[in-house]
Every structure is written in C-alpha cells, then in structure tokens.
Amino acid sequence: MVDGLRPVRGGCLLGLTRPGPRERFAEIAARQDADIDLAEAALQIAAEEYAALDVGACLARLDALADEAAPRVRAAQDTLERVEELVRFFEEHGFRGNTLDYYDPRNSFLNEVLERRLGIPITLSLVYLAVGQRVGIPFHGVSFPGHFLLRCEVPEGLVVVDAFEHAVLDRDACQRRLDAALPVPALLDPELHLRPARPREILARLLGNLKRIWAERGDLERTLGCCDRILLLAPDEPGELRDRALVYESLACYSAAAADLDRLLECAPGHPETAALRAKRDALRARRGPVH
C-alpha cells in the first residue's frame, strides 16, 4: 500500500468507496462542460482515497495562490506577459514535475500536488488552470500526445505552456514533443494537436492515468473505481466498457462483465471484434461467480 493512501474496501459491485465523493463526482459529471469545475472534480476523485480530505480547504489553497499571484500577474503589460509571469510564479513557489517517481499515484491527486508541490503534467496543469481562471488568464487544457499541455489565446496568436517544465513553448518545441510522442512522424497541426480539451476529456485522462497505475500494480478494486468514474463521464465509450468488463471478469463478477459487453455491442454495432465480443459475453453468462 502506498503511504498516505487509505485502503479501498468492498465487494465487486458495491461498497468500493465512500458514497459521498462518488455521488458528488457523478453530479459533476452530469453537468454541461461549461459548468464543470475541474479542480472540484479532481478533488472529488482524490476524496475516494483520502477519507478526511477537506475539499473546501483545498479550493481555499487555490484561492490563496491566486490572491498572491494576482498583483504581479495583473501588473504585466499584456496577456503574453501575464502568462509568463504566472509561469515564473509557480516555478518560484516550488511547483515541479516529479521526474524521480513519475508513476507515484500521489502525483495524480490534486490535494497531494498542492501539499507536496509535486506532480505530473495534467495535475500541475490543473493548478495552473484553477489559478489562471482566478487571475484572469484564460487557459485551456490540451490533450497533447504523451504530455498534457495548456494553451492561451493572445492577440499575437497562441501561447502554449508546459506546466511540468514551467516552459512557454514555440511551434518548434511543440513539434519536437510531437515527434517524441508519435511512432510515425507527423507535422504539427494546431487545430488537431493543440485543440482545447473539454473538461470531461481532461478528467477522463486523469482517471485513465490512475487506472493504468492501479492495473499495473494489480489493484483491481481501485482499477474498477477508475473505470466506473470514466464511464460516468463517457457512458457509451466502447474501450472503457471493454476495460471494465475485463476487470469485472478478473473479480469474478461475470454477470456485470457480460452486461458491459452487451452495452458495448449496442453502442458499437460495427465493432471490428463483434464476433469475439459476443462469444466472450456468452461465455461469461455461462459462468457463475462466488456468492457475496
């Protein structure tokens, strides 16, 4: 067990986590994108791991950072200078990427990032987004291949920020990152590679990172919790339905696994693996798991 994380308990269908944070996250996930507070949603994800987490206190820490940054940011001459000033603010205040233990799950929990000032690109970007919103810098997240980024439109064009490295990137730097992330070289297309990510996309990417960490550690219950929350954000996503079915199968929850494959086949009738998925579903229906 990772220090600082409480164990998740419960059966394969119910009781995996406290109902409060999950219900709150479900309510947030049901909103329109424009009404989703990313910081609050990320903290509700963390609240499933940290039973005593005070979400309001964490939001107040973001407010305090913004209050401290605001005078120097607003004194800048234009939006580009304000962005550069905020980047310097975070660097001076010790926020940094965790290069020594990138896959430490604490890097994916916003409360830990605020406490330790250590994170990964997406969680550091969430801090930038929250503080930027409070001081009038209109950041948007970018689901860039391999490395989450931020963008901000200015009169001169587009400013791209790497919160992990506290860097303002030009086009050449973005191209180099793209070359490193893709198996086949591609010319940077800002409309494609630097498009603003929707809030639910950002949350799904955050949960996807955690899902991979827990799966690689063999923690099926936490993996299932991530699958559940991703599907609250995107209920008909075929890949996520398949992944949750596999986790359910590993937990001997065969009926639930079959139900997810049924839903997958409804949502993606032209799926290239339709025959194999049907066979898998039928085999799961024929199995009986342990009585809980």
Characterization of the model:
The chain is an alpha+beta fold and 292 residues long. The chain has helices at residues 19-29, 38-47, 55-74, 79-92, 110-116, 121-135, 171-181, 190-193, 199-216, 220-233, 238-250, 254-267, 274-285, and strands spanning 96-97, 118-119, 140-142, 149-154, 157-162, 167-169. The strands form 2 sheets. The protein has a 4-stranded antiparallel β-sheet. Strands 1-2 form a two-stranded parallel sheet. A hairpin with a 4-residue loop joins strand 5 and strand 6 (167-169). Helix 2 runs parallel beside helix 9 and helix 12 (254-267) packs antiparallel against helix 13 (274-285). The longest helix has 20 residues, at 55-74. 39% of the residues are buried.
In short:
By secondary structure, this protein is α+β, with helices and mostly antiparallel strands. It has helices spanning 19-29, 38-47, 55-74, 79-92, 110-116, 121-135, 171-181, 190-193, 199-216, 220-233, 238-250, 254-267, 274-285, and strands at 96-97, 118-119, 140-142, 149-154, 157-162, 167-169.
Strand content: 5-15%
SSE run: HHHHEHEHEEEEHHHHHHH
CA-based gyration radius: 21 Å
Number of helices: 13
Number of strands: 6
Mean pLDDT figure:
92
Report the CATH topology name of the largest domain.
C8orf32 fold
CATH architecture of the largest domain: Roll
Q: Give the termini distance in whole angstroms.
A: 25 Å
Number of domains: 2
Name the CATH class of the largest domain.
Alpha Beta
Q: Which regions contain 5 or more consecutive residues with pLDDT less than 50?
A: 6-18
Structural class: alpha+beta
Strand order of the largest sheet: 3-4-5-6
Which overall shape is indicated by the principal axes computed on the Cα atoms?
Answer: globular
Largest sheet: 4 strands, antiparallel
